[in-house]
TrEMBL record:
Source taxonomy: Eukaryota, Metazoa, Ecdysozoa, Nematoda, Chromadorea
Residue ranges of the TM segments: 37-62, 553-576
Record's GO cellular component terms: cytoplasm; membrane
Localization, UniProt: Membrane
Protein name: Uncharacterized protein
One example GO MF annotation: scavenger receptor activity
Ranges annotated as biased composition (Basic and acidic residues): 613-635
């Protein structure tokens, strides 16, 4: 834009100079006003630049550029099977995501089992994995209005990004998911005492403990051997289940092919998706219609079951506004989150709108989040000191009369009312804020076979009564926030994302299982992961070009054109003024000739100078009338023409005044 301005200035100066030179040299027609060509040329150029500048500054950013961007947003497969630029980015995600896993290593397992001690936790990590993904099995549906696909994901362990000396074969002690599964089986089913006794003996015979020591790689993606799971998946068990009509002694057998948090999930896909392509409406592009063949999540209720219209965290609608609330569906968490605008800032040179998760995303005690509530079939009060209602709180609804009418004890605003019994309600006990249950195996449409919970790391959104139930937590509201998304305001593409999530498995006192009879009710965090996603360089450069460079260049050109127009109008004004001045001079020179009449020459004292318009009436000039006086050899040649003429005619100087 700067170079263009300089060139236009030089061009304008040259045109003006040539016009002025032509006028000065008398190259213009005698009847044409001097400077007229320069003036007209500058005005025409100025008007053209004003029109161009206004077009670039008004219609382009308001309608032309948005229309251009929206035309590139929809997911489109060309006739030759290739994809448009953005569709190619969507299919082969140009993103590198780092998953940092931190484990809560239990250092006092024996004291917990036999003495009822609090859990002592030591955080170890990070164990870093680099994740990439691409979409496969793509099928275009409903006249290309929707598209079906599966998302294939790969994790690669990165020792260079992990803690010093940390490797996948490191051993950590964590709550035993297999043992927690047996506790859940009892809570969810009405087992006869003899079956419970047999199950407990079976756990002891297999060497299962409430906590287990496993490798990092095994607990994450590689899976690990577990004797209880081996028995469940054995041929003899399958035969007994078949003979028992799908159950074993009236108890359903959990479908767990491998043991681990993400067992054999590497190099595979989660459930299938159906999303809008945006070909009918670019503002609806990338919105999820179905996941795992369903448009509602069966394990939630009410608003919590809704995810239709959410994005998967990579692409959202273009031209995001400050009052937009975006839905972010995370298959690992088996749910969607609401994100709201926090502020605007640049990320690596790209203008971005920063979205953060709603503060009550993990609070099931709010009316709009009640669908995330944990049923607590085991009826365990994991946090007996919460809520803190004070010494004056007395649960006595029978003594309150009509005062309890309309008081809903399901919501936290009424927990400390004398009409309510804190977190206890009918046959369940509520969880504190900052904790919601995990319902499915991560990324799969399968129920989690044990009680698992999601929260921010270190229960950073929960009250202190939660932290006090174990030793070793250090919640940091900044480091352990839920997460935030940097989304380019124009394209709707995610340029950077942070997401933190913690998995917790409770192990509680149950007299039907020998190894838990001395334990306290323990809410044990197992691990938390920090996800940091960034664009690959080529995708970053593309967004910079399309969303930053192009609008900036157009803005610069528009302003430059208006500035040049002002300069050209100024040059035109100067040309006009100069032409008028020269016109006045030429008009005087051609129209008025001052001569002395014959009659006046006889009366020198009365000589006057008056204009003679008719060329035929004009007298000869002194040089024509007295040529002998103007010869070089004349003795009077050194005198001025006026002095020579006056001396010759005998006139005086005063006669010419």
């Amino acid at each position: 834009a700067t170079m263009c301005s300089i060139l236009m200035c030089i061009l304008g100066s040259q045109i003006a100079a040539k016009g002025a030179a032509a006028a000065a040299a008398g190259k213009m027609a005698k009847k044409q006003r001097p400077g007229r060509c320069c003036t007209i040329t500058m005005i025409i150029l100025g008007v053209l630049l004003v029109v161009l500048g206004l077009l670039l500054l008004i219609p382009f950013p308001i309608s032309w550029y948005p229309a251009l961007v929206k035309s590139q947003i929809p997911l489109i497969e060309r006739k030759d099977g290739s994809y448009t630029k953005l569709t190619g980015f969507w299919q082969n995600l140009p993103q590198l995501a780092t998953y940092d896993f931190y484990f809560f290593n239990i250092t006092n397992m024996d004291e917990m089992i036999y003495e009822g001690a609090k859990a002592h936790l030591v955080e170890v990590g990070p164990y870093a994995y680099m994740e990439t993904e691409f979409k496969e099995g793509i099928q275009w549906m409903d006249d290309n209005m929707r598209v079906y696909y599966r998302s294939n994901k790969t994790w690669v362990f990165r020792p260079d990004l992990s803690c010093t000396g940390c490797m996948e074969d490191d051993v950590v002690t964590l709550p035993n998911a297999a043992y927690a599964t047996t506790l859940a089986l009892k809570a969810q089913n009405d087992m006869p005492p003899n079956v419970l006794r047999l199950l407990d003996l079976l756990l002891q015979a297999l060497g299962e403990n409430p906590m287990s020591s496993v490798t990092v790689g095994g607990i994450l993606f590689n899976a690990y051997d577990d004797p209880f799971l081996d028995l469940v998946n054995s041929n003899i068990t399958k035969l007994l289940v078949e003979l028992g009509g799908g159950t074993l002694g009236g108890v359903p057998v959990p479908d767990i092919p491998y043991m681990g948090y993400f067992p054999h999930y590497n190099h595979t896909n989660d459930e299938d998706y159906v999303v809008r392509t945006g070909q009918d409406d670019p503002m609806m592009a990338f919105q999820i219609e179905k996941w795992a063949g369903q448009d509602r999540l069966s394990w939630w209720s009410g608003e919590a079951a809704e995810f239709k219209g959410a994005g998967d965290g990579t692409f959202y609608k273009p031209f995001i506004e400050d009052d937009d609330v975006l839905m972010n569906f995370q298959s690992f968490a088996c749910r969607a989150y609401n994100m709201e605008v926090s502020h605007h800032e640049q990320w690596t040179g790209i203008d971005a709108t920063v979205f953060t998760f709603a503060e009550d995303s993990y609070d099931s005690n709010k009316e709009h989040n009640i669908g995330y509530r944990y049923e607590n079939l085991e009826y365990i009060d994991y946090f007996p000191d919460w809520p803190t209602c004070g010494p004056n709180h007395t649960y006595q609804p029978w003594a309150m009369g009509d005062k309890c009418v309309g008081v809903d004890c399901r919501f936290d605003v009424n927990f400390c009312s004398d009409c309510c019994d804190g977190s206890h309600y009918e046959r369940t006990i509520f969880m504190p804020p900052g904790i919601v249950p995990l319902r499915c195996l991560p990324g799969q449409n399968k129920r989690l076979p044990f009680a698992g919970f999601l929260s921010p790391p270190h229960f950073s959104s929960s009250p202190s009564q939660v932290h006090d139930m174990m030793v070793g937590l250090a919640p940091d509201p900044v480091k352990h926030e839920m997460g935030r998304w940097w989304i380019n305001t124009i394209t709707g593409g995610t340029v950077h994302a942070l997401f933190n999530m913690q998995l917790t498995i409770p192990i509680y006192n149950d007299e039907d299982f020998m190894l838990t009879t001395h334990m306290r009710n323990s809410f044990l965090p197992s691990f938390w992961t920090h996800i940091d996603a960034n664009l690959k360089p080529y995708a970053h450069d593309f967004i910079v070009l399309s969303a930053q460079t192009v609008p900036s260049v157009v803005l610069g050109l528009g302003i430059s054109f208006l500035i040049l127009a002002v300069i050209f109008f100024a040059i035109a004004f100067c040309c006009f003024r100069r032409g008028r001045k020269r016109e006045d001079e030429e008009e005087v020179f051609h129209t008025f000739t001052y001569n002395v009449s014959t009659e006046d020459e006889k009366k020198p004292a009365a000589v006057q100078i008056r204009p003679i318009a008719d060329a035929e009436q004009r007298r000869e000039s002194p040089a024509q009338k007295y040529p002998e006086l103007y010869e070089k050899e004349s003795p009077e040649s050194s005198l001025s023409w006026k002095s020579r003429t006056l001396q010759h005619e005998g006139a005086t100087e005063e006669a010419w005044s």
